[in-house]
Amino acid sequence: MGDSLGIRKPTLEEVAAAAGVSKMTVSRALRGAPDVSPETRERVLKATEQLGYVGNQLALSLSSQRTNLVAVVVPSMSNIVFPEVLAGISVGLEGSGMQAVFGLSDYDARKERDVIRDMLSWRPSAIIVTGLDQPEDTVKMLRSAAIPVIQIMDLDGTPIDFNVGLSHGKAGEEMARALIAAGRRRFGYVGSVLERDLRAAKRKAGFERVLLEHRLAFIGQRIGDTLSSVCLGKYLTHELLRAEPNLDCIYYSNDDMAVGGAFAGMEASRTDDILMAGFNGLELAAALPVRIATSKSPRRMIGEVAARLARGSMVTGVPSSGKITAFVPEIIGIE
Amino acid sequence: MGDSLGIRKPTLEEVAAAAGVSKMTVSRALRGAPDVSPETRERVLKATEQLGYVGNQLALSLSSQRTNLVAVVVPSMSNIVFPEVLAGISVGLEGSGMQAVFGLSDYDARKERDVIRDMLSWRPSAIIVTGLDQPEDTVKMLRSAAIPVIQIMDLDGTPIDFNVGLSHGKAGEEMARALIAAGRRRFGYVGSVLERDLRAAKRKAGFERVLLEHRLAFIGQRIGDTLSSVCLGKYLTHELLRAEPNLDCIYYSNDDMAVGGAFAGMEASRTDDILMAGFNGLELAAALPVRIATSKSPRRMIGEVAARLARGSMVTGVPSSGKITAFVPEIIGIE
DNA sequence: CTGAAAGCGCTAACAC
DNA sequence: GTGTTAGCGCTTTCAG
C-alpha cells in the first residue's frame, strides 16, 4: 500500500523548512513566479525533489477560488462515439493545465442531474454536457453554477451558454434527400430505444419529414429494446428483411446498427439491391467489404472545440463570439 | 453564463443563517447525521433548496482529509476496450459516492507519469492504472502516494499493491495451442506498433513461444506504424496475403485488427482456407458474417473489480486478501 | 525579492 | 440536539 501508509504527505511548509525559506517563497518558486532569486529557486526545487512533494490541488483550489477542472457528462461509454468525444476534449485541453472529470448519465435524466450536481460540487471552471434536452431543474442548476455551460452534439434546441454540434433533425433530412435522389424509394427503419437516444429520434423524425414531402413513408421498421449494437442491428435487420423482402433501403439509428445491418445483408445475399444507411461515419464503416451510406459526424472536433471554449473560460469570463458552433455532417457512401 | 456570473455560490454559513442555526448543524443535517431534530432538519433542507446550495467538495475534502475520488489512468480512448473498462469502473463505483477522475497516457510513459502526478495532487483515495510496466520513478511516486494502487489489464509482472487482469503472455500461448490443435500450421502475424502496446507484444511473444515448441514460426508478418484499427488490419492483411498466399492462419494484435483481416479475407475470397485470430472478444467480432477466433477478455469485469477494490480502500485501509485477481480469457471461434 | 497574516468552506473534536 | 474552536494546505494581500 505504498511506502508510507498513513504518513501524511509533505506540505509546502515542510518543503519550506527543508529549503530554509518561508512557504510563500516555495509557493512562488514552484509556480514559476518571476520574482524569486535563481539560487532560492534552486534550493526549493531540490527540497521538493528530496521530499517527493506533490502539491495539493484541494488546498490550492479552495484557497485561490478557482479550479483547473472541466466537468464532462456523457450518456454512455458503450458506443465508441462518446469516448472519441472525450479523446477530443482531452486533446483540446492539452497544455492548458486543465483536467477533465467525467461522469456518465446512462441516458437517464435523473441520473444526469445527480451526476451534474456531484460534478458542480467540485467547482469546475466549465461544464460540458451532452445535448440540449435537460429538464428544467437541471438547467436551473447549470445556470446558477455561474460557469460556462457547453452543450455538445446536438443543435436542435435552446442552448444555455455555448453550443457545439450539429442538427440531428437536418442530418436525418439530408440523408433522406440524398437517398431519394439516388433513386431509393422503399424504406425501412431499424433503431433502438428511441426515447433514450434523443438525437437518434431527431434524425428519424427529420428523415420521416422528407419522406412525407415525397409522399413516402417507412414501409417497415424494427425498434430494439436494448442499446444499439452491431449484434442488435444484425438481428433486427434479418427480422425486417423477412417481414419486408422488397425494401431497397434501410435507415438505422447509427452506424453500429447499420454495420450489423450490412452483415445481415451479406448473409442474406442482399448486398446488391439494398442500401444500408447509418449515422456517424465510424472508421469501421469505411473498412466494410460492402458499401454503406452514413453521415460523418465530427465528434473528435466537437470535443476539441468544446475543450477550447472551456479553456477560454479559465482566462476571460466570456468569449463574446462563437456561442454556437454548427457542423454539417458530410454524407458518404451513396453512389 | 448562468444567472449569477461572478456571484459567489452560497456557503454553509449562509444556509445556516437562513435556517437560523449554526453551520455545524447544517453540515450534520445535510450529511444525514442521526442527531439532528426532525424540525431542524426540515428547516435546513428548505433553506438549502431555496438558496440552491451545492456543497463544496474542495472544502469538504480538505477539511476531512479524505476524498471520494478514484483516479484512473488508461492509455487511450480510441479502442473500445478502455471505454468499456471505464464503464465497468463506473458501474462498480455506483452507489459508493465515489467519483472517477480519468486521465489518458497515450501509450506514453512520460505522459503517464505526468498525468499520474496531476491526479495525485487531487489526493484521490485510490488510483487505478493500466499495466505493470511503469518505469521506476512512476512506481516510486505511486508508492509514496500512500493509497491503494490498482494495476489492471495485465498480470505479467510485479504489482505494487493490487492487480486485476489476465496474463497476456499466457493468452498468446493458449491461442497458439488451440490453433495448432485445430490443425493450423502456416501462421502469419499482423499487428501495430508493438513497443507502444506492451500487452499486445506479450501476447505475440507467448504465441511465438508455443510456435517454437512445435518447431513452427511466423511465416510472414506486417507491423503497422499507427495505432490499431479495422482499417489498418484490413490493409496489412491484404499486403500479407499477397506476399504469403499460403498462410492458413493469421494472429492479430487485437480484434480490431482481426476484423479488418476478416474483411480483407472476404474481399480476397479467402474465408474458407484461412482463419483470423484476434484478442478481446469484441461484440463486433461475434456479429461478423465470417467466423474469427478470439480470446474473450473480461474488460468490464476488470473495471468492476478494480472499482470494488477502490471502494474498499475508502472504508478500511487494506483489504487483506485478493491482492491479485486473475482472469483466464475464454477462447472462442475455433472449430 | 521575501515574509506574515488572514482566510477559502468545510469538518473533527470537544463543549454545553 | 446544537454550538464553538481550531484547523485542513494553500494563496491572496499587504508589508517590508
UniProtKB/TrEMBL annotation, chains A, B:
Residues 10-64 form the HTH lacI-type domain. GO terms for molecular function: DNA binding. Pfam families: LacI, Peripla_BP_1. SMART domains: HTH_LACI. The keyword Transcription regulation applies. Keywords: DNA-binding, Transcription, Transcription regulation. Coiled coil: none annotated. Signal peptide: none annotated. It comes from the Bacteria. The keyword Transcription applies. SUPFAM superfamilies: lambda repressor-like DNA-binding domains, Periplasmic binding protein-like I. PANTHER family: LACI-RELATED TRANSCRIPTIONAL REPRESSOR, TRANSCRIPTIONAL REGULATOR. This is LacI family DNA-binding transcriptional regulator. It comes from Rhizobium mesosinicum.
